[in-house]
Amino acid sequence: MKAAVFLDRDGVLCEDRADYVRSWADWRWVPGALEGAAAIARAGRPLVVITNQACIGKGLVPRAVVDGIHRRMGDDLAAAGAPLAGVYVCPHAPDDGCDCRKPRPGMLLAAARDLDLDLAASTFVGDNLRDGEAAAAAGTRFVLTLTGQGPRWLEEARRRGAPPRTAPDLRAAAELILRG
C-alpha cells in the first residue's frame, strides 16, 4: 500500500469560480499548484484528484465536458512532472444524497481500494472544511490551503476551535507533507 496525496480541484489546482469551470477556457491554474504537485510526484507519492462537480448533476455541464477538462488538467500535470494516478468525480447535486459527495468519504475510499493506497499514511489537500471532513471520515490527514475558499474556511475552523494544518498554496502544502 502506498501513501498518496489527494488533491481537491477547484481552489487548489484551479481557481474556484462561482459559476463553475465549464470549459478548458475557464481553467486558470492556481499559482504554485503545478510546482507543488511536481514536488509530491518526485517524492514518489501518487497524486489523486478528488472533486465534487455539482455542475454535472445540476445539468449545467455535461459529464463528457468535465472529463475533457480533466484530460487537459492531467496533460498539464504530466508535462510538469506530476502524472495523476486517478481522478475521482462526484457528479451529483448537493441534495442527491450520494455517498461520494464530500464531506462523505466515498471517493477517497474508492481511490484507496482501486489504487491500493494507505489512507492512514495519506494526506488530503483542500481549500474547504468539507474536504477536511471527508479526510477525517476516511482516516486521512488534511492540509487546508489558503487559496480558493481557504481563508474563509480557516476563520470558520478557528470559530469552531479546531483549525487544521494550513499552507498558503499547494507548493507550501507539498513541503509540509514531505517534511512529515
CATH homologous superfamily (4th level) name: HAD superfamily/HAD-like
How many helical elements?
A: 7
Strand order of the largest sheet: 3-2-1-4-5-6
**Helix vs. strand class:** alpha/beta
CATH fold name: Rossmann fold
Please report the total strand number as a whole number.
Answer: 6
Main sheet makeup: 6 strands, parallel
Q: Any guess at the CATH architecture? A: 3-Layer(aba) Sandwich
Residue stretches low in confidence (pLDDT < 50, at least 5 long) are: none
Strand content: 15-25%
Written as H for each helix and E for each strand, in order along the chain, the element string is EHEHHEHEHEHEH
Task: Report the CATH C-level class.
Answer: Alpha Beta
Instruction: Give the CA-based shape.
Output: globular
How many domains? The number is 1
Gyration radius, in Å: 15 Å
Please give a structural write-up.
The chain has helices at 33-42, 54-57, 63-79, 106-115, 129-138, 150-160, 170-179; strands at residues 5-7, 47-52, 84-90, 123-126, 141-145, 165-167. By secondary structure, the chain is α/β, with parallel strands linked by helices. The chain has a single domain (5-179), classed as HAD superfamily/HAD-like (Rossmann fold), CATH 3.40.50.1000. β4 (123-126), α5 (129-138) and β5 form a beta-alpha-beta unit. The relative contact order is 0.20.
